[in-house]
Amino acid sequence: MTEDSQLQQFGETVRKVRKAKGLSQEQLAELAGLHRNYIGGVERGERNIALLNIILIAHALGMSPSELLQGLD
């Protein structure tokens, strides 16, 4: 699996969980303390996200970072 495909897979996971929780990108960004454009970039697989931001996003989604990263190899 290439780095780009891993970023895209992670972004798809974030989008799927966000939508399942009924959150907009803007709402998730606010909960995580990040900018909505950043969340959009993550979901599109355009950002190589830092560990601390993974933690912020996971907690904003009500899950652990390990749950959010599950399935990435």
Your description of this structure?
This protein is mainly α. It has a single domain, classed as 434 Repressor (Amino-terminal Domain). The chain has 5 helices and no strands. It has helices at about 5-20, 25-30, 35-45, 50-60, 65-70. The radius of gyration is 11 Å and the shape is globular. The model has no long low-confidence stretch (mean pLDDT about 95).
End-to-end Cα distance: 8 Å
Subunit organisation of the chains? single chain
| SS class | mainly alpha
Q: Output the helix-strand order.
A: HHHHH
Helix content: 55-70%
Going by CATH, the homologous superfamily would be lambda repressor-like DNA-binding domains
Named CATH topology: 434 Repressor (Amino-terminal Domain)
Strand content: under 5%
Query: Overall pLDDT, averaged?
Result: 96
The tally of strands reads: 0
Low-confidence residue ranges: none
Question: How many domains would you count in the coordinates?
Answer: 1
Largest sheet: none
Q: What's the alpha carbon Rg, rounded to whole Å?
A: 11 Å
Number of helices: 5
Please state the second-level CATH architecture. Answer: Orthogonal Bundle
